């Protein structure tokens, strides 16, 4: 536990705003690629795909925080809100890129696509769930919702799962990288589910 | 918001005078890379730099739409033998050995056998065809191919009377094509056409782009180009052509029969489960305004629609 405690002590001195700032580095990188031409000959897909991938990193990164504390004692809980909001920020940019640059605001085709293409449907439902989470990611909401706040924020699991399914579904053939993301999600969900299952089984056995 | 302006429904194939110039004739190689600036220079400028000795008839089948740059054409490729990313082929396809190369011509032909590529390309004079290219992923380019009509090769080898289809096969060489070592697709890539489609004057065996030998990532040394069908029909790096009387299996159709049909004609009215086909994004169109309307048969209806008369194209997608 020595290292974990040392890390925790050091982190206690660090405020959360640098995390938000650092979270903008990937955006700066995408902008740099666009300006320098490094984004490739199809800048629209280049931006759309990169933003989606960055969102995925933040979403799964957010899911790592709780098990990290439980399993090795490193406490990053203070930064969880920042990571979650950054994830939402990138998903939103990803959605806006699709609507404005890719679909060019052809609303009818866009709406048709949304419900006709399962991968987009998964994506948009994931986005709506994340929107609910983002809107309630503030101290006032936590206070107001009380015990219900934790229930609402369980939505993060279906939200991230939908994001990953959306990512896998948009591939013509699921690539090796796709399976790695899917595997990571399953492991993270498993880590979260296990203590819950154990406690349920345990509490059910007691009355007998 | 004002209504979006679309390209007018103008004729899609240019009616160029026979003595008009092809790009390869008038464009010094260095300037291939800079087509847009060249366009801005205007037609008069083009005439001025043309070397008189190089004049050659332009194909009436060519479009006069602005062609994509060589960089765009050679750095944005779906060639899954080299990886899933569109940048993968440009990055690693140079490891492909294309010399020696031969094509086995088999099945219902009078002169079956293995033909050397040097022999194949002597079948007919190489000409330039500037075609629109429409991917099933709803993006498009305009590409100045060099090649000759597949019909010339089929005539040369003698198609027997019972033959109804032409099957094509891509090279299988996993040690040079890393995508073939990964799973997902049952290699080698195979494609096919109905015989009348194969004999259509638009159907090309392409050996180059912009007057250069075919870049490896675009399907060196020889590939099919069927401009009224989605790009995956235009099979690359061909090693075998077989004439048959039964419809040949095709790779994407085997993989996802609901998504990819045998015909795969460009058709804005038949939706793909994954991509709406009503519009397409023109590569090279920049960040804004790259989306344009998709035309039936990719705009080649005058040349090909007859072949599908009476067919339900929603069923035979
Ligand atoms: C939960 C939130 C979401 C996540 C995590 C996510 C993530 C991703 C990822 C990782 C990719 C593939 C990037 C690549 O191949 O490198 C992708 C593609 C895409 N996403 Fe999302 N996405 C989300 C929501 C949405 C929403 C709400 C929309 C629009 C309604 C959308 C539209 C698209 C489109 C159009 C593509 C590209 C598909 C293609 O090129 O064929 N996504 N997304």
Estimate the helix proportion of chain A, in percent: over 70%
Q: Class by helix and strand content of chain A?
A: mainly alpha
User: What does the radius of gyration of chain A come to?
Assistant: 19 Å
What is the makeup of the main sheet of chain B?
7 strands, mixed
By CATH's scheme, which homologous superfamily of chain B applies?
Answer: Oxidoreductase, molybdopterin-binding domain
Tally of alpha and pi helices of chain A: 11
Largest interface: A-B, 26 and 32 residues
The outline of chain A comes out as globular
Number of helices of chain B: 10
Number of strands of chain A: 0
β-sheet strand percentage of chain B: 15-25%
The description of the largest β-sheet of chain A is: none
The whole-angstrom Rg of chain B is 19 Å
How would you explain this protein's 3D organization?
The complex is a heterodimer of chains A (208) and B (317). Chain A is mostly helical and 208 residues long. Chain A has one domain. Chain A contains 11 helices and no strands. The longest helix of chain A is centred in the N-terminal third of the chain and has 30 residues. Chain A is globular, with a radius of gyration of 19 Å. Chain B is of the alpha+beta class. Chain B has a single domain, classed as Sulfite Oxidase, Chain A, domain 2 (Alpha-Beta Complex), CATH 3.90.420. Chain B is 19% helix and 21% strand. In chain B, the strands form 2 sheets. In chain B, strands 3, 4, 7, 8, 9, 11 and 12 form a 7-stranded mixed beta sheet that branches. In chain B, strands 2-1-10-5-6 form a 5-stranded mixed beta sheet. In chain B, β3 and β4 form a beta hairpin. The two termini of chain B are 35 Å apart. The N terminus of chain B is likely disordered. Classes of the chains: A mainly alpha (208), B alpha+beta (317). The interface between A and B is medium-sized, with 26 and 32 residues. The structure holds protoporphyrin IX containing FE. Protoporphyrin IX containing FE (HEM) binds next to α4, α5, α7 and α10 of chain A. Protoporphyrin IX containing FE binds next to α4, α5, α7 and α10 of chain A.
């Amino acid at each position: 536990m020595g290292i974990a405690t040392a890390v925790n002590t050091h982190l206690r001195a660090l405020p959360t705003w640098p995390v938000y700032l650092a979270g903008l580095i990937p955006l700066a990188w995408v902008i740099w690629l666009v300006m320098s031409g490094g984004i490739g000959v199809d800048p629209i897909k280049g931006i759309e795909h990169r933003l989606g991938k960055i969102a995925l990193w933040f979403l799964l990164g957010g899911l790592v925080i709780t098990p990290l504390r439980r399993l090795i004692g490193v406490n990053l809980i203070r930064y969880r809100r920042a990571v979650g909001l950054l994830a939402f920020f990138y998903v939103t940019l990803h959605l806006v890129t699709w609507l404005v640059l890719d679909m060019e605001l052809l609303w009818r085709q866009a709406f048709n696509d949304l419900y006709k293409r399962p991968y987009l449907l998964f994506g948009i439902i994931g986005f709506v769930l994340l929107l609910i989470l983002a809107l309630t990611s503030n101290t006032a909401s936590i206070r107001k919702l009380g015990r219900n706040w934790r229930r609402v924020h369980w939505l993060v699991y279906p939200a991230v799962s939908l994001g990953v399914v959306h990512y896998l579904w948009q591939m013509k053939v699921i690539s090796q990288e796709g399976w790695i993301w899917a595997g990571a999600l399953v492991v993270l969900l498993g880590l979260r589910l296990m203590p819950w299952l154990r406690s349920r089984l345990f509490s059910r056995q007691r009355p007998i | 918001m004002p209504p979006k302006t679309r390209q007018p429904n103008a004729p899609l194939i240019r009616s160029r005078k026979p003595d008009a110039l092809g790009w390869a004739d008038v464009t010094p190689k260095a300037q291939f890379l800079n087509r847009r600036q060249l366009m801005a220079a205007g037609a008069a400028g083009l005439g001025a730099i043309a070397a008189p000795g190089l004049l050659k008839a332009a194909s009436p089948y060519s479009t006069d739409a602005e062609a994509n740059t060589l960089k765009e054409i050679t750095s944005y490729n779906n060639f899954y033998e080299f990886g899933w990313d569109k940048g993968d082929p440009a990055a690693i396809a140079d490891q492909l050995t294309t010399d020696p190369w031969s094509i086995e011509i088999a099945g219902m032909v009078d002169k079956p056998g293995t033909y050397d590529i040097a022999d194949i390309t002597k079948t007919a004079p190489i000409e330039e065809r500037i075609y629109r290219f429409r991917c099933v992923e709803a993006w498009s380019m305009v590409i100045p191919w060099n090649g000759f009509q597949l019909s010339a090769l089929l005539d040369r080898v003698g198609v027997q009377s019972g033959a109804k289809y032409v099957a094509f096969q891509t090279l299988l060489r996993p040690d040079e094509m890393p995508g073939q070592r990964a799973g997902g697709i049952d290699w080698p890539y195979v494609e096919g056409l109905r015989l009348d489609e194969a004999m259509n004057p638009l159907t090309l065996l392409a050996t180059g782009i912009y007057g250069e030998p075919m870049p490896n990532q675009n399907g060196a040394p020889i590939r099919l180009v069927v401009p009224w069908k989605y790009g995956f029909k235009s099979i690359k790096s061909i090693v075998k052509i077989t004439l048959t009387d039964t419809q040949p299996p095709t790779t994407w159709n085997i993989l996802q029969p609901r998504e990819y049909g045998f015909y795969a004609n460009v058709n804005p009215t038949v939706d793909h489960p994954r991509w709406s086909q009503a519009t397409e994004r023109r590569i090279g169109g920049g960040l804004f305004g790259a989306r344009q309307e998709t035309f039936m048969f990719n705009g080649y209806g005058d040349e090909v629609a007859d072949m599908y008369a009476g067919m339900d194209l929603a069923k035979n997608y």
